[in-house]
Design a protein that fits this description.
Layout: H1 5-33, H2 36-49, H3 54-64, H4 73-80, H5 89-105, H6 109-115, H7 119-128, H8 137-146, H9 157-165, H10 178-195, H11 199-211
């Protein structure tokens, strides 16, 4: 019984629960006390993490933070050269998304997000909107979680690998489309319910089991 991997996971959760909950509280504080610029920074982090890594996302934000809101495309490309694996394409995504949010919503990201009351509609806005460049369902879920919105599955390679190891899903391949994503997400949420661990906490727990870190 003690060798049951789910029991081991429950034990690990007990050990890490305080740190995990502290991290989630920090995410909620970004939205509660942060500015529209802070929220956009989180969106940029996810744009730069997509197709790369969280570490590259962190480095990219650090390199561009002071020019994210009004820096030119040329300046952003220069800042990300040698920092991001896609130093031309990611700045294009950032600038297009930024200008769209400015022209359509006055860059009032909090007002925009608060207008999206339904959790599914909220994610769909970012995942399926052709003017929000560079992110799909995974990074839209990541973005919303990172600003304190709850209940989304962030199906990155670490989560998918773990779900496969626990035989929750048949293979660890990334979902090919929206329906695949939602199907795996339902399985992930089902695991969280079986374990009695909230899906947001389970995400950070599984990520830390693979990487040894509780990041964002």
């Amino acid at each position: 019984m003690n060798n049951n991997p789910l029991n081991k996971l429950r034990h690990s959760y007990i050990e890490k629960r305080t740190v995990i909950r502290k991290r989630l509280a920090e995410f909620r504080e970004i939205y509660k006390s942060g500015s529209n610029e802070n929220i956009f920074e989180e969106l940029v982090f996810c744009i730069c993490t997509a197709g790369a890594s969280a570490k590259m996302g962190f480095k990219s934000v650090e390199a561009t933070r002071d020019v994210l809101v009004d820096g030119s495309l040329k300046k952003l490309k220069r800042r990300l050269t040698g920092v991001h694996r896609f130093p031309n394409k990611r700045p294009e995504y950032i600038v297009h998304t930024r200008e769209y949010l400015k022209s359509e919503y006055g860059f009032k990201l909090k007002d925009l997000i608060e207008s999206l009351r339904d959790p599914i509609e909220r994610r769909e806005f970012f995942a399926a909107n052709k003017n929000i460049k560079g992110i799909g369902y995974k990074e839209s879920s990541h973005f919303l979680r990172n600003i304190g919105f709850s209940g989304y599955g962030i199906l990155d390679k670490h989560i998918l690998s773990t779900l496969h190891e626990y035989r929750v899903i048949n293979n660890p391949k990334p979902p090919a489309n929206r329906d695949d994503y939602l199907s795996i997400e339902r399985s992930f949420i089902g695991l969280s319910e079986d374990l009695g661990i909230h899906v947001d906490e389970l995400d950070l727990l599984l990520w830390s089991e693979k990487t040894g870190k509780i990041l964002k």
